[in-house]
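Budget justification note: compute hours in this period were largely spent on complex prediction jobs such as the one shown. Inputs:
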Amino acid sequence: MSDQMCQPLSLLYRWIQENNELVDKCKQQGGGDALSPDQNKTHLRWCSSEFHKLLKKIQGIPPLADYLQLELTVVYNACLCSTAQSQFSEAELLLTQATERVLQMTGDAPVASDPPVFWRTVLKSVGDTALNPCVLYLLCLQWAIWLSTCQLKTIQECQDELFSVFETLSTGVWDEGRSELRGKSSDIPLLVMDPRRLFELLQICTIIAQGAESLSEGRSSEALSGLQTASSLPAPRTLIAYTHLLSGSCLAHMSRPQMALQCYRKALETDSRCVCALYQSMLIYRQLGNTQAEIQALCLLHSTLMLPFATEPALAGTRLLSPSLLLRSQSLSSLLSVPSALSVLHNLALKCVHHERVSDGVEYYLDLLAVLHSEDQHGVHAEGPPLPSLPELYLQAGAALLMARRPADCMALCDEVITTTLELLPEKVVLEEPEEKCEAETRPLCAEGDDRVAMLLWAGAAYLLQGHCHTHLKDWKQAVTHYTRCFNLLVKVRFKKGSFQPQIPSTDMIGKQGTDLCILQRLKGLSLAGRGISFTQTDQLREALRDLQLSMQAFPECTSAGLWCGEVLWRLGRRWEAAACWEKTWSFTPQFSVESLSVYLQEPQSGPLLDSSELRRRIQELGPPLSA
Amino acid sequence: MEKFNRLSLCGKIIIFNFKRASATNDCDRSELIFSSLAFEQEDNTFLKAADGAAIISRKRSAHVDIVKCKCAINVQKRVTTACILVTKKSEKGESFQYSLLTLSSSNRLEPCIEFKLPYQMRETVYILHGPTVLWSHTGNVFYASLQAGEVRQIPIQVSHSVIGELPLHKEHVFVLGLHNLSDQCTPSTSQTLGYFVESGQVFDGTMILPHPYICITRCILVLSAEKVDDVLKSAVIAATSNQQLVYFENGIVKDVCQLPFEQPENIQVVNTGRNGCLFVISFHEGHVCAVWKETFQIASHWSSVSSVHVDDFLGCGTDQMLLFFKDQGITGQPLDTFLLTDLCGISYSHGQDSAAPKTPPPSPENDLLTLRALESRLQSGLTVLQELQREVRVKDRVLQQSVRALTDVVSESETILTQHEQEGLIALWDCDDESRDEALDDKTQDMPAVSSKPQIDKLWHRITEERLVVGVILTTDSSVPVASVSLSILTETGQSSTPAVIQTQSQVFWLPAPCSSSSSSSSSAYMFSEPAAKRSKQHNAGRPNDLNTCRLAVTAVTRLTPLLNSGCVKCHVMLHYVQRQDAFALVSNPTPVVLHCGQFALDVHSDFQTRLLKNPDLKTDEVKEDLLSLMAVLDRWVFHIDSPEHSLGDIDSWIQKRVGCKRIEVSPQYLLLNSSGPSALMLLHWHQITPFQGELSVHSSQLQALQFLDSLLAYLPASCSIQPVKGTKGQGATQIFSLALEKEMVSLIECVSSLLCEEEEEEEERKSLGHEETPEPGSVKGLQRCREVFQWDVERSRMRLSPLVDVGRYRRLTQSMSKAQLDGDLAALLGTRRTFLC
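Corresponding output:
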């Protein structure tokens, strides 16, 4: 008879066995890391479907107290597998079914769908029975689902219940219960993931997600305290790095850049793959104006981005639920985003060129162009500002080459730009000044016109650079030719403001910086100045004077035009005028910072130069003006 | 619901009906008529093959009804016959006459069993092998059969009975039920019993259906059964009230299929031949569902079906199912709308909207699986492609860089390498000023080489469990190497005056400098704490940071009993150490020194039951000595815990949460674990190095340490490793080694700098002799001079980079250096030997 009494248990026992075998298989796969990610995925899918099958069997019988612990364990396993596959609705359905069956068993009526109330009732109805931990584990999974679906508010509402999970886990009820039963371990249904690990993971992920949320809402100090405590929690390396990173961002928001830098550094020290920490610190250096450090950081960032990243190693214990699955909030991902390697490279090149590291800058530009040419769009997927268009890059690289005294290379690049744009150049183009207030809206509308203007400006700039190159080579005739070509292109642009007729733009219409009009005027000024200077070298002083004066009209801040204009006047014997011209030129303060303009729009440093001290000496020798 | 009394037999459909001839005829009699129909393939209809009638009652008022009709094996004739159970209610309604009629091969209805019941059968009635009529009433199961000839009750009291047929040799009809021990349906209060109707044998029902399923099983079909060595082996299909079709083998759930409808009523098997078997489950309210046996998945389902029959209607050798649909049409003919199919090619239908054969929809799960498999293959292909591309990219980069280097070489331009590239380093944004500060600190530190003998601060002794611990706290300077310090005990018994040295085990502990002992102040007043990197530089208490003076505790442990041989004993405590001659030489000139520290007396009469660390909350010297004694007595292990992927979390608080754990106030880094009795004291010290690394020192007995580690392992992340730190017993050795290395470095710096400084001075002198006046560059001669000065400057700066020094002094330098190195080597050797010994 006793044998028969054991029989009902055998079904339970068999199901436990089945569950445990599945758990073993599920875990075994994690042991061999040689598998590729999608093999893992297939395996996970298989495990999930097996757990679901088993659950279907178990849920085929009415909820009995003896079976319920096993059932909840299998629900935990199945639900975890589903969650790991991002099948949240399926997982949530499982949870509801399971809790309904628990309520059915305890004889309590089903309750409202408000999550905190619901779980509170379920926990209350379970009481302090052996089922309590099981239900708490399910609550953990519910938490995971909430976290994955960014329902941070709900998590906040359920904080008390979630804390009770922690208490259960930390008082070691689970551990002790286990060690008690360790003798007949085959009778305990196993779990695919240690709930304590799950709890730890959820805890830190929640703090990170909440921190990111508060940060994006401007509550930095609030976020900071949470993040600082989180950094000492047990968690995977990557997540610890995230806490440091976010702390750094908070501190940066609270205008404590040095402390932020320390945090970023800690993030990197913790996890060397935390590239965003590097990127953020680069931004801080930029903000602080520490150019050397910024360049260094950019350089590092680029080389780090070029590293073939090893795929995320399977973390033992947390392998099923990856942190990335739990951290899906928009605010966090925007904090973690890093621009593409190419964009970083371009930034780096530009920085170097602007800050007296021309030769490095040239190398970076050439690297950039080489990568673009090999059509290897490495890291295109990364977010961030898009790269400037190719002609723009060519021109920047050309300007850098010229700065590095490689005129031949510069000319080759400019040729490239000219040949690509030449056939597309419009005969005549009208530049419309957008209304100031609705600038942003009108931009996309006149995109086509913009394209043509941009094309023309590129070609013009290319000619200008070539002119500079010839000036550099002291080939004055060629220089004049190229400057003229540039100018001839530029006069094709008519300017239209409001409802007025299109006209040739004049000085008083200089628009805001960065607009096409400004670029146009600058190009004009520079090309005329270049031609004027070339004329002075071939002693065509009158032509020179005309060009230089025109240049100063188009672009009054052009220093070389001013100085050379004075020089020509001096040579023509108009010494007082010359002195006035020089004085006026020196009195100009540059309106725009150097970095805000494209490199190729800056005044060349390579042409014939006038020594200012010499000029001042001349003025002194001239004595005070006679008239007066 | 309308009742359809149809059954299939030998490929024919037999319809039973009552005909009440009251209106037309004088004699009111109830006539049971039947007609047998066969399927005509050509006409796609059922044609009448035979019919007949039997008079059931001649009384007018008799209320006659068909209860059920079904085919069953007639045991006597050994043939399957159509059986029909009819009931006649008596006039007063107090008794019910039941009779089971069988249809003979000559198409005659013959009465088979007749019985009278005082009640009407309400629940399901079974007509089974025999023929046997089985029904349950008020919790009891009754049956009537040809053999029994009367109504009998099943002798066991069961609830939730499940009735079925087994294809066994002797026993066919069985009843399964829960033998109640109380009201509830749980394994503890009831057991599953089976009962064979033919033999009256009771058997264990779990061999057919597991216990929890008894309550929920609505219908059952036994596929196969055999008795091997008196053990029943069976394969069973059961439809449950939880909308599941469950497949059992020997009472084990093998497969489950979710059913689309509720309230299953009957399961039939369709053998479609080569294409496998189908289970046809008919449900309440005319739903029907077909499930493949092999895949255990739903093949097809229909609704508003009036009856389902399984037989070889076409006469082709395999089974088909025949579904009659409830009449929706105008014709009113009962058998007008039907579907005859085996879901594997055979399909005849009539009267249905879609005449086309209803092919089973392919299981969506299969599609899903195929799709997933394809998807995963696609993904793996994609990743391989991406890996290849990545490799190509890396190769390209290498090529580019090589080509650039090559062109640089060819064009004789210097390859531009950034500073960190040259160093093969990746520079973070570390600013240099910190290290510069430290270098300055080092320089300002000078080392007075004044050696003095150690100063004894305190002498104490403790007795614990037959062991005597003697301890000395002393202040010493760097001239006393820690490794050389030991204690010995000289006994002086009352009678003989010659003192005897007894065997002791000596240990040395570093003590924190007295001033910095209270450095554990917390600064939590800030709104937020600063990054730890900023704070950590402030102090490092507990380390012998001051090289000149350090406090040591030296202990000696010995067995107590030999000392107490002669009642009272006086013990002299001697300190042994090695005095070094100068600060740089470590063991070069060892001069062993013995220092008398003091004495104490032991008496056999005194109370030896002292317990160490009674109150760890106190902060007295006694407690400190207790702690030191405890550390001397207990074995010590140091474990390095390293978790590369997962941070360790707050291990300290985990230890503190353990039962009986207290922090020792005298030295708060130690935790006392006093869980079970005085013999199981345990001292723990957790030192977190980084969030991912830590060091745990355990002072306890071996078994306890193991137990503690075991529980710790369960708490730690799975990927973490615990390594015992080598040479824990001689913890001084590593310190000596590090000190030696430090000295080696310091002496190198000092020697070289002094060498260069002197060189510089000489140079200064030479310079002061030479050209001082700045030449005027105006003249040619002046220019010449200028050039000379310039060249000399260049020369000098070059010299500074690779200066020339005096041979003698250089020799002295190398000599002192090699001496220092020798000391370092020796210390290293000492350290390794100690670790081997441990």
